C-alpha cells in the first residue's frame, strides 16, 4: 500500500525555564493512504503534540516527517502554510470556527487562502456543507448552531480543499454521546470514500471506529495494532 | 490571496467594531481637519487679499505713521510715539519732492452718516479730506461733474464728490450734482460722482465722500496723522520715487542721518509680501499642531491595532491553521490600519475644505481647494497608517499557529 505519512524519531521538547519537558520522546510510524487510525492514550501523554506536528501546526525538535513523499521538516513557513491549506484538514475538539462569520464563510475560508474565485468558492463550500447535512444552516453563525452542528461545519471546512489527510483531535470531546456518534459516523463515511483519517481520542467507544489503534504513553508508542478486516479472520 | 479579499475582510472587521473604529479614526479626522481647514482658509484669504489690494493704483505707494500689517500686537509703542504726519509736512513734501507724478494727502474719518432731505445712510460712510491728485493715486474716476480743484483746497470750500452707494441711498431719483448734502451734519454741495469701484475685503469702496483736506482739518482738528499717497510716473522710476520721497520726508520730519524712518512706506507689493510672511507663521503653526495631532492619532491607531491583535490571537491561529500565510495576516492588519487612517483622512479633508471655505466665504474670499495640502494630507495619513500599523501587523503575522490557537 502507498505510504502517506512517514515519521521517524520524532522528538518534541518544551523548554520551561530550568526544566525540560519531553512531550514526545521518540516516535516513529508509517500511515498508508486510506487508513483510519485512532491515537489513544491518557491525558498528557503527547497525543495532541503529535497531531499538531502531523498537521504542520507545530514543528518537532528533531526527527523527520515525510508527508506524501515531501520532507515537511525541511519546509519554510510559506510552504507549511501551503501544506496546511491543501494537504491537511484539521478538526479540533473546540471547533475553532471564526465566531463572527457564518457557516458558509467559515467553510469558504481555506479556499480564500487557496486563491479560488468567489463564485467557485461558494459552490464548493455549499457542497461541503450539504455533504455534512447542513444545507439549511449556511447563514448561521457558530453561536446560532448546536455543538454537533458546529463540529459538522468544522468537518466541512476540513474537507473543502480536498486534503490528503483529515486530522481530528478529540472531535467528540465537547459533544454528548449521541452527537459524538453522528460525528464519528460522518468520519467513517469519509474514510469509506477514500479519505485518510487520524483521530485522537481516549474513549474506547470512539476508537472502535478505527481499524488501527496507536497507543501512546509518556511520549512513546506503547502499542500499534491493526484489526484484521472482517473477511480476513 | 487577492488584495481585494483582504480589503473586504478588513472592512468587515472594522464594520463589526464600528464604535471603536470611529473613535480611532476621529483622531486622524481632527489632525487632518485642522491642517486642511487652516490651509484652505489661508489660501482663500491670501487670494482675496491679493485681488483686494490691487485697488491701490499701479506704481503707487503710501506713506503713513503706522505699518499696514502690524505683527507685534496692536499699535505698539514704537509706532505710537512717532510724530504725526501733518498737513504742513505733506504740503512741503509736495513742493520739495522731485520725481513723483501725483501726490495726495489723505485725512480719513469713517463711520459717519450722510443725509439729503428725508434720506439718510447707515453710519458706515467714510469721509476723506484730500488734495486734487487723489483721483489718480487712488484710481477713482469721476463719472459726472468734476473732482476737487486747487482753488477749493485753498479756500477750504464746502464741496464734495460722492461714491455710487451714497448716490443710490440719498439721491434715488434725482441728479445729485449741485445738490446740498449733509456729511456728518455739515452742509456740503455735491460737485461730482465717482464711477463704481466695487468691494475689497467685503467692504464697499463706494460709500465715501471726498472733501478738501483743508475743510476736513477745520472740522475734525489736527490731532490725527495724515496719509500720503504717491504715484510714480512709471514702473522704471518707482524705486527712485520711493527714495526721493523718503529722503525728502526724512529731512522735513527732522530724522537724523543713520536713524530709522519715523514713517512707513508701503505698496501693493510690500503689502502682499508682508501678508504672505504673516500667513507663513500661521502655516508653520498649523502644520506643527497638525503634526502633533496626527502623531497622537497614529499612536491611537497603533494602540487599537495592538489590542485588536491580542483579542484576535485565536482568529489568527485559526486562519493560519487553515492555510493563511504570514504575509496574508500582515496585509490584513496593515490594510485595517491604513483604512482607518485613510477614512479618517478623507473625512478630515472634506470637513477641512468645507469649513476652510466657509470661513473664506465669510471673509469674502473666493472658494479654493488647496490641492497640494489635500495630497499632503492623504499621503501623511497613509504614512501614519503604515508606520503605526506595521508593528501590530508584524506581531500578528509572526505568531506561531499552535501558540495562537491555544491562546485564551
Ligand atoms: N506549549 C507547551 N509548553 C509546555 N508544555 C507543553 C506544551 N504543550 C504541551 N505540553 C506538555 O506536553 C505534554 C503532552 O501534552 P499534549 O500533547 O497536549 O497531551 P494530550 O495527550 O493530553 O493531548 C503535557 O505534559 C503537556 O503539559
Ligand atoms: Mg490533547
Describe this structure in words.
The complex is a heterodimer of chains A (233) and B (408). Chain A is of the alpha/beta class and 233 residues long. Chain A has helices at residues 47-54, 77-86, 103-114, 118-131, 147-159, 177-192, 204-207, and strands at residues 3-16, 19-32, 36-40, 62-67, 70-71, 88-91, 165-169, 196-200, 212-217, 220-226. The model of chain A has no long low-confidence stretch (mean pLDDT 92). With 408 residues, chain B is an alpha+beta fold. In chain B, the strands form two sheets. In chain B, strands 1, 2, 3, 4, 5, 6, 7, 8, 9, 12, 13 and 14 form a twelve-stranded mixed sheet that branches. In chain B, strands 10-11 form a two-stranded antiparallel sheet. Chain B is elongated and about 105 Å long. The complex binds adenosine-5'-diphosphate and magnesium ion. Residues 14, 16, 21, 23, 41, 43-49 of chain A line the site of adenosine-5'-diphosphate (ADP).
Characteristics of this structure?
heterodimer; A: 233 residues; alpha/beta; six-stranded mixed beta sheet; B: 408 residues; alpha+beta; twelve-stranded mixed beta sheet; elongated; binds adenosine-5'-diphosphate; binds magnesium ion
Query: Mind telling me the C-alpha Rg of chain A?
Result: 18 Å
How many DSSP H or I helices of chain A?
7
Helix count of chain B, per DSSP?
A: 14
Distance between termini of chain B?
28 Å
Instruction: Outline the low-pLDDT stretches of chain B.
Output: none
Q: How much of the residues of chain B is beta strand, in percent?
A: 15-25%
The Cα radius of gyration of chain B reads 32 Å
Largest sheet of chain A: 6 strands, mixed
* Quaternary: heterodimer
| Overall SS class of chain B | alpha+beta
| Largest interface chains and counts | A-B, 25 and 22 residues
Write down how many β-strands of chain A occur, each being a DSSP E stretch of 2 or more residues.
10
The beta-strand count of chain B equals 14
Element string of chain B (H = helix, E = strand): HHEHHEEEEHEHEHEEEEEHEHEHHHHH
Distance between the termini of chain A: 20 Å
SSE pattern of chain A: EEEHEEHEHHHEHEHEE
How does the helix and strand content of chain A classify structurally? alpha/beta
Number of separate structural domains of chain B: 2
- Low-pLDDT segments, ≥5 res of chain A: none
Cross-sheet strand order for the largest sheet of chain A: 6-7-8-3-9-10
Shape of chain B: elongated
Amino acid at each position: 500500500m502507498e505510504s502517506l505519512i512517514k515519521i521517524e524519531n520524532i522528538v518534541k521538547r518544551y523548554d520551561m525555564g530550568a526544566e525540560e519537558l519531553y512531550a514526545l520522546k521518540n516516535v516513529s510510524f508509517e500511515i498508508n493512504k486510506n487508513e483510519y487510525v485512532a491515537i489513544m492514550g491518557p491525558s498528557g501523554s503527547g497525543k495532541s503534540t503529535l497531531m499538531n506536528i502531523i498537521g504542520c501546526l507545530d514543528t518537532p525538535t528533531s526527527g523527520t516527517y515525510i508527508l506524501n513523499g515531501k520532507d515537511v521538516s525541511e519546509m519554510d513557513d510559506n510552504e507549511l502554510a501551503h501544506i496546511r491549506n491543501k494537504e491537511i484538514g484539521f478538526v479540533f475538539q473546540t471547533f475553532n470556527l471564526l465566531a463572527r462569520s457564518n457557516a458558509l464563510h467559515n467553510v469558504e475560508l481555506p479556499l480564500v487562502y487557496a486563491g479560488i474565485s468567489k463564485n467557485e468558492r461558494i459552490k464548493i463550500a455549499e457542497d461541503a456543507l450539504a455533504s455534512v447535512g447542513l444545507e439549511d444552516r449556511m447563514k448561521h453563525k457558530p453561536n446560532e448552531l448546536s455543538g454537533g452542528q458546529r463540529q459538522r461545519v468544522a468537518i466541512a471546512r476540513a474537507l473543502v480543499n480536498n486534503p490528503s489527510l483529515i486530522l481530528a483531535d478529540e472531535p467528540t470531546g465537547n459533544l454528548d454521546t449521541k452527537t459524538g456518534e453522528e460525528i464519528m459516523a460522518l468520519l467513517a463515511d469519509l474514510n469509506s470514500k477514500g479519505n485518510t483519517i487520524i483521530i485522537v481520542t481516549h474513549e474506547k467507544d470512539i476508537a472502535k471506529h478505527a481499524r488501527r489503534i496507536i497507543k501512546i504513553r509518556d511520549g512513546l508508542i506503547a502499542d500499534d495494532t491493526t484489526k484484521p478486516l472482517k473477511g480476513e479472520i | 490571496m487577492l488584495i481585494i479579499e483582504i480589503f473586504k475582510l478588513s472592512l468587515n472587521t472594522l464594520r463589526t467594531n464600528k464604535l471603536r473604529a470611529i473613535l480611532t479614526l476621529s483622531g486622524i479626522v481632527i489632525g487632518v481637519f485642522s491642517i486642511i481647514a487652516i490651509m484652505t482658509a489661508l489660501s482663500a484669504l491670501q487670494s482675496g487679499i491679493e485681488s483686494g489690494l490691487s485697488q491701490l493704483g499701479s506704481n503707487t505707494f503710501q506713506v503713513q505713521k503706522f505699518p499696514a500689517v502690524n505683527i507685534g500686537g496692536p499699535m505698539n509703542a514704537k509706532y505710537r510715539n512717532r510724530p504725526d504726519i501733518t498737513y504742513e509736512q505733506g504740503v512741503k513734501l509736495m513742493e520739495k519732492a522731485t520725481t513723483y507724478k501725483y501726490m495726495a494727502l489723505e485725512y480719513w474719518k469713517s463711520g459717519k452718516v450722510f443725509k439729503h432731505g428725508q434720506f439718510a445712510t447707515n453710519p458706515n460712510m467714510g469721509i476723506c479730506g484730500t488734495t486734487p491728485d487723489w483721483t489718480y493715486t487712488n484710481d477713482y474716476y469721476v463719472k459726472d461733474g468734476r473732482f476737487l480743484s486747487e482753488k477749493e483746497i485753498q479756500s477750504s470750500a464746502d464741496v464734495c464728490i460722492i461714491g455710487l452707494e451714497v448716490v443710490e441711498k440719498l439721491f434715488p431719483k434725482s441728479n445729485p450734482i449741485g445738490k446740498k448734502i449733509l456729511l456728518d451734519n455739515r452742509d456740503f454741495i455735491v460737485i461730482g460722482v465717482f464711477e463704481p469701484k466695487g468691494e475689497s475685503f467685503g467692504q464697499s469702496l463706494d460709500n465715501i465722500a471726498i472733501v478738501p483736506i483743508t475743510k476736513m482739518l477745520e472740522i475734525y482738528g489736527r490731532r490725527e496723522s495724515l496719509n500720503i499717497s504717491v504715484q510714480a510716473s512709471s514702473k522704471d522710476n518707482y524705486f527712485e520715487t520711493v527714495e526721493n520721497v523718503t529722503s525728502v520726508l526724512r529731512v522735513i520730519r527732522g530724522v537724523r542721518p543713520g536713524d530709522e524712518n519715523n514713517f512707513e512706506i508701503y505698496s501693493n507689493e510690500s503689502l502682499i509680501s508682508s501678508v504672505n510672511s504673516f500667513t507663513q507663521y500661521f502655516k508653520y503653526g498649523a502644520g506643527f499642531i497638525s503634526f502633533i495631532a496626527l502623531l497622537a492619532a497614529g499612536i491611537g491607531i497603533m494602540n487599537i491595532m495592538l489590542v485588536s491583535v491580542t483579542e484576535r490571537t485565536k482568529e489568527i491561529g485559526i486562519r493560519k491553521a487553515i492555510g493563511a500565510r504570514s504575509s496574508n495576516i500582515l496585509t490584513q492588519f496593515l490594510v485595517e490600519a491604513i483604512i482607518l487612517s485613510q477614512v479618517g483622512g478623507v473625512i478630515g479633508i472634506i470637513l477641512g475644505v468645507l469649513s476652510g471655505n466657509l470661513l473664506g466665504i465669510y471673509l469674502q474670499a473666493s472658494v479654493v481647494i488647496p490641492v497640494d495640502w489635500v495630497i499632503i494630507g492623504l499621503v501623511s495619513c497613509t504614512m501614519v497608517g503604515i508606520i503605526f500599523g506595521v508593528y501590530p501587523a508584524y506581531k500578528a503575522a509572526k505568531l506561531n499557529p499552535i501558540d495562537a490557537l491555544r491562546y485564551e
